[in-house]
Amino acid sequence: xxxxxxxxxxxxxxxxxxxxxxxxxxxxxxxxxxxxxxxxxxxxxxxxxxxxxxxxxxxxxxxxxxxxxxxxxxxxxxxxxxxxxxxxxxxxxxxxxxxxxxxxxxxxxxxxxxxxxxxxxxxxxxxxxxxxxxxxxxxxxxxxxxxxxxxxxxxxxxxxxxxxxxxxxxxxxxxxxxxxxxxxxxxxxxxxxxxxxxxxxxxxxxxxxxxxxxxxxxxxxxxxxxxxxxxxxxxxxxxxxxxxxxxxxxxxxxxxxxxxxxxxxxxxxxxxxxxxxxxxxxxxxxxxxxxxxxxxxxxxxxxxxxxxx
Length: 309
Known about the structure:
The protein is mostly helical. It has 17 helices and four strands. It has a two-stranded antiparallel ribbon.
């Protein structure tokens, strides 16, 4: 069920959302600087050593996970409903919302890459996918996914840290991809969907969705026929840096570090941002300059969410 959201009221912040009766969970613009509002601790932070061990020993019911539908975040759902009510052509506005939500992006890419559409080349970019599907089909997909959230009164809560970390990683991946000559749209997709296995587990009610989530996420996207480069990057996003070979794999791992540096905490330890630049062999690039580019991308991507009322 969609939870009512309201702008944060803390002094010094503007923009963003928070849930009623809880901490701020979105972003802020304060003094001209774009930063995420500090997030609650992640599920991993709250887990005892015994819980971690139990999760590692417990097998994952992959069939149950793969049958589950990904959950749309309430903030994205609310903006989708607003866009669909507009009488004018809102294709561009809806694409922008889809770029902020892993579940919506996955649904669009899954449809664009379905065998019955007959495209000869698999599609990895959300923008291209929406163009190829057309406004009518994209609107129907988005409405269907949001309806799931509205009418399912037992829908699980969406971890806010996961949503914010996914958006920040996507924006960072896009910026870093341009720096190293990779396709920014595919990098954005890989960043947005890199924790899709965790989201799938959370939506299925799995007690410890962190267990094996990278492998499950890659498997899910592969079954949905997304490009191999993207599925591999999702599967490898927790690999040791010295085990990363493909450029996109390195971009996603590095992007997670910049997301954490922006305050969009992830579920596990990452490199620091300077180590991330070294991983991409960007040794002569200034870290503050990269951060500024990522902040600008975040501001552009999330502007509709910040302005929603």
